[in-house]
Specification:
- By secondary structure, the chain is of the alpha+beta class.
- The chain has one domain: Nucleoside Triphosphate Pyrophosphohydrolase (Alpha-Beta Complex), CATH 3.90.79.
- The protein is 28% helix and 33% strand.
- Strands 1, 2, 3, 4, 5, 6, 7 and 8 form an eight-stranded mixed beta sheet that branches. It has a three-stranded antiparallel beta sheet with strand order 9-10-11.
- The radius of gyration is 16 Å and the shape is globular.
């Protein structure tokens, strides 16, 4: 299974996760990834709708694939209710770029270790997916990798309320997704929702999972 996924992502990755942030950002600004459902078509969209005057902030998340006896899973977290943005939502571990981060891979691995205690040595990076621009002013670069999970994750209780995994077979089934709509500042927005048990995976997280699904289905 790993070999199949590794070969598939290598053939259709959006780029090298070890590419310098400056290069990744320059590419994103030149060719915005408007093909992802729910992603803003360009940085200008977020300025127009939300009134941002500053530049979009680069961020990276880890789309971690875990091989279990029951099959492959995707690693996710539920954010705490006390966070100022996206509180209580389902997300990938990750966060905004910091000055010392040279690459999206570096950002994703650093943030993942801080949030759930996963050492970078336990991750085999496979590549990156298309960027996703969110209304809170971030351009998310998803970094995909195989995760060798520790016996126990150690979460940052200030940021992470729960760590869980969704089966890849659930992610891969197109009929599991539905589309919902919301008006934001008098603009109609469309986004994907992927229900899984008690979890409502939606927005950027659901769209990134759908993009992963499409890449593995090609």
């Amino acid at each position: 299974m790993r070999d199949v996924i590794r070969a598939q992502l290598k053939a259709c990755t959006a780029g090298d996760a070890g590419q310098a942030w400056s290069e990744v950002t320059a590419l994103a600004e030149k060719e915005p990834n408007s093909n992802l459902p729910g992603s803003y078509k360009a940085d200008g969209d977020t300025v127009k709708i939300f009134g941002f005057t500053g530049p979009i902030t680069p961020a990276a998340v880890l789309v971690g694939l875990v091989e279990r006896r029951q099959g492959m899973t995707v690693l996710l977290t539920r954010r705490t209710e006390s966070l100022s943005s996206h509180s209580g939502q389902i997300s990938f571990p990750g966060g905004r770029i910091e000055q010392a981060d040279a690459t999206p891979m570096g950002t994703a691995l650093r943030e993942t270790e801080e949030e759930i205690g996963l050492a970078p040595a336990r991750v085999e990076i496979l590549g990156r997916l298309a960027n996703y621009v969110v209304g809170t002013g971030y351009r998310i670069t998803p970094v995909v990798g195989f995760v060798d999970p520790p016996e126990r994750f150690v979460r940052d209780e200030r940021e992470v309320a729960e760590i869980f995994e969704v089966p890849l077979e659930v992610v891969m089934k197109r009929s599991n997704y539905r589309r919902e709509h919301m008006r934001i500042k008098n603009v109609e927005r469309s986004f994907l929702v992927l229900p899984y048990g008690e979890y409502r995976i939606w927005g950027a997280t659901a769209s990134i999972l759908a993009n992963l699904r499409d890449k593995l289905s090609d």
